[in-house]
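Structure first, sequence second, as always.
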């Protein structure tokens, strides 16, 4: 690699924001940190950006394809061939993910075994085209002409075929998407409900599951005759031992505009999906209940700031006062987490409470995009009130609805669900914060209860960026209960957001003094120390996260925090001139989480600086693949642009 080329490449990396300028807070708590850039990109802009990148990246490939009509075994994701005249062209076994063929003439073209995930064929002429064994997941085939085309054994998961002409097409072995006729198309625009309308929809499709007391929530996703099907988190049905619950009889409460309705189900109807925390059960009823519409969760998972709502029925610590329904607004947080145990890969900042697990996460048009399952809380023992309380922190995790749609057929669950893949209108994409009241507390007048209520309010204010009010609220909680570590942590996070780093560090130190293995505070403390050039102390803080041995209740948190701690320890080692140590730490992060795109990206950056072009390209490609799979278009574009510059 020449010195000139190397210098230019490093300049590009600096432009894109290299790892060494980033910290954990900038991508894990994306919305409550200082000076953060939100993606907030609507779908049309995302598509335009991809097309622009493709034109910049692949001008020679575009010219060659237009001249030769041959692109066998190509790898040119995101290429723009909109309006091209390519009858009989060959794209056999090519990777053309997110490619744009809208309005093109592709009559008789050969796409046999091609990867066309997310490709745009809107209005294209595909008469007689060969899509045998092609992957058309999430492809837009709106108004495409597919007369006499072969779709034998093609994958059409969540594809949009509205208005497509399939006369004479070979559909042998093809599972058409279970999409309700007349629903808006992928490229269309749905109506624009206000959050109140979404709440009405959410409440009517969300059920409360009782066994024999309220244990969680679920969502009605399908109906066949008088049989309704409910999707929930598997741990709601039997949190500790699934087998021991087989003889249990559950009761569900469904709340319609006419009032609460009770339905009974037997546990024998429950089907748990393999490898993920999801389960489906059915009940029989002659009553008419609303059925949820499902959305394409890949369209929102990589776009920070997209508004979402969580619906559910929280637990109540007061047996004489049943829980009240909760509808909580927030937005998508960073989703570069990759693989997380039990399928949890969507994070969002909504305020949630225990008992809402299994309930739906909805988009701004009232469509289900995920199942809520992990709302991380800090438990607080109120001895004076003889009650268990909790403080809700910033992070929630859900299982994307596409995970269910992909796994259901493999589990023998074949339901005709309503899939609506249209894009909500611009007016519905603005973040709408809907705060919730604290959980129902049996005795709210104890000192601990008062402090917990204030701490929960403080976190809601912090996530809503009302920083001065949040700081005042956390300080009030601390004044009432000086050893409430979650309030100290909230104070530290708020001071950090206000750029008062030294004061923030004092608050985080106090948090860890009270609760030594509190991952949130340890990670934030490490980042602050690194920012203050106290690097050895930062490494010590990251080490505490890495080396902790969590019990079962903390395993999800540790699974999330440990790879991030490795990445930031690696960045800090790089600061100290230890490149090999940095590479080793990025490798550890990847070993724990093989889908952690940023870890590949950061390691590639070090390889590039060490002039190991081959390993750098390999890791940048791995990062790009994972960014694309996670719906992170910005990360994908950034990495592909680097690759196009390096791989010359």
């Amino acid at each position: 690699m020449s010195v000139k080329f190397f210098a230019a490449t490093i300049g590009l990396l600096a432009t894109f924001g290299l790892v060494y300028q980033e910290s954990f807070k900038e991508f894990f708590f994306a919305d409550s940190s200082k000076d953060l850039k939100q993606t907030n990109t609507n779908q049309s802009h995302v598509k335009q950006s991809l097309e622009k990148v493709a034109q910049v990246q692949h001008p020679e490939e575009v010219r060659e394809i237009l001249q030769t009509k041959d692109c066998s075994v190509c790898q040119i994701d995101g290429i723009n061939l909109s309006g091209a005249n390519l009858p009989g062209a060959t794209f056999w076994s090519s990777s053309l993910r997110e490619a744009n063929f809208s309005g093109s003439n592709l009559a008789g073209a050969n796409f046999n075994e091609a990867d066309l995930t997310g490709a745009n064929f809107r209005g294209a002429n595909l008469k007689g085209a060969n899509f045998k064994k092609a992957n058309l997941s999430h492809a837009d085939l709106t108004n495409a002409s597919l007369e006499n085309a072969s779709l034998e054994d093609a994958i059409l998961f969540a594809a949009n075929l509205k208005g497509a002409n399939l006369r004479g097409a070979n559909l042998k072995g093809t599972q058409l998407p279970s999409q309700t006729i007349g629903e808006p198309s992928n490229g269309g625009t749905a109506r624009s409900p206000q959050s109140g309308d979404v709440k009405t929809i959410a409440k009517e499709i969300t059920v409360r599951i009782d066994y024999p007391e309220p244990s969680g929530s679920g969502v009605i996703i399908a109906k066949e005759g008088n049989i309704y099907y409910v999707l929930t988190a598997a741990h709601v049905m039997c949190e500790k031992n699934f087998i021991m619950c087989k003889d249990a009889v559950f009761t569900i409460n469904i709340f319609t505009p006419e009032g609460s309705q009770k339905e009974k189900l037997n546990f024998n109807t429950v089907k748990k999906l393999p490898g993920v925390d999801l389960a489906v059960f059915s009940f029989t009823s002659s009553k008419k209940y609303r059925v949820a519409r499902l959305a394409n969760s890949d369209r929102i998972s990589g776009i920070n700031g997209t508004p979402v709502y969580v619906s559910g029925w929280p637990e109540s610590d007061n047996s004489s006062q049943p829980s009240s329904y909760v509808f909580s607004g927030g937005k998508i947080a960073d989703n570069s987490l990759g693989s997380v145990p039990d399928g949890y890969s969507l994070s969002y900042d909504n305020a949630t409470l225990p008992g809402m697990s299994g309930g739906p996460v909805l988009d701004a048009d009232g469509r289900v995009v995920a199942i809520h399952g992990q709302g991380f809380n800090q438990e607080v023992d109120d001895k004076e009130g003889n009650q268990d309380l909790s403080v809700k922190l910033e992070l929630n995790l859900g299982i994307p609805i596409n995970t269910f749609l992909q796994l259901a057929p493999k589990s023998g669950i074949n339901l005709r669900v309503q899939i609506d893949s249209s894009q909500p209108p611009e007016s519905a994409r603005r973040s709408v914060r809907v705060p919730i009241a604290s959980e129902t507390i049996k005795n709210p007048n104890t000192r601990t209860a008062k402090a917990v209520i204030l701490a929960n309010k403080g976190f809601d204010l912090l996530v809503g960026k009302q920083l001065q009010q949040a700081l005042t609220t956390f300080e009030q909680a601390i004044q009432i209960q000086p050893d409430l570590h979650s309030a100290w942590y909230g104070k530290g996070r708020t001071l950090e957001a206000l750029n008062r780093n030294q004061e923030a560090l004092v608050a985080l130190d106090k948090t860890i003094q009270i609760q030594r293995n509190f991952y949130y505070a340890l990670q934030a403390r490490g980042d602050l120390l690194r920012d203050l050039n106290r690097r050895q102390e930062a490494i010590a803080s990251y080490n505490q996260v890495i080396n902790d041995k969590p019990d079962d209740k903390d395993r999800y948190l540790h699974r999330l925090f440990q790879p991030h701690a490795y990445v930031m320890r690696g960045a800090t080692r790089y600061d100290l001139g230890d490149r090999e140590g940095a590479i080793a730490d990025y490798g550890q992060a990847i070993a724990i989480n093989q889908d952690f795109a940023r870890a590949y990206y950061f390691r590639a950056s070090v390889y590039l600086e060490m002039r190991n072009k081959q390993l750098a390209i390999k890791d940048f490609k791995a990062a790009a693949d994972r960014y694309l799979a996670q719906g992170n278009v910005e990360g994908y574009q950034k990495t592909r642009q680097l690759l196009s510059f390096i791989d010359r």
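Margin note: The domain at 3-28+555-646 is CATH 1.25.40.10 (Serine Threonine Protein Phosphatase 5, Tetratricopeptide repeat).
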